[in-house]
Amino acid sequence: MKADKIRELDTKELDVKLHEIDEQMFHLRLQMSLGQMDGLKKYRELRKDKARILTVLRERELKAAEAK
Length: 68
Description:
Blueprint: H1 3-8, H2 11-34, H3 40-67
Helix pairs in contact: 2-3
C-alpha cells in the first residue's frame, strides 16, 4: 500500500488496518515456523505497510500537538 493511499484514510480506518496487519503477520510467522509456507515476501510487505501506517499516525499526532 502506498503512503498516499494511507494518508487518505482516517485515523480509525488506520487503526483497523493496523490490527489486521498484526493478525496477518502473526499467522504468517506461525506458518513459517511450522515450515508450511514460504511467506517471507508477504511478511516483508506487511512490515513495510505497518511502518508506513505508524509513520502517518505519528505525523498526525505531531501536527495536532503543533496546532495546540
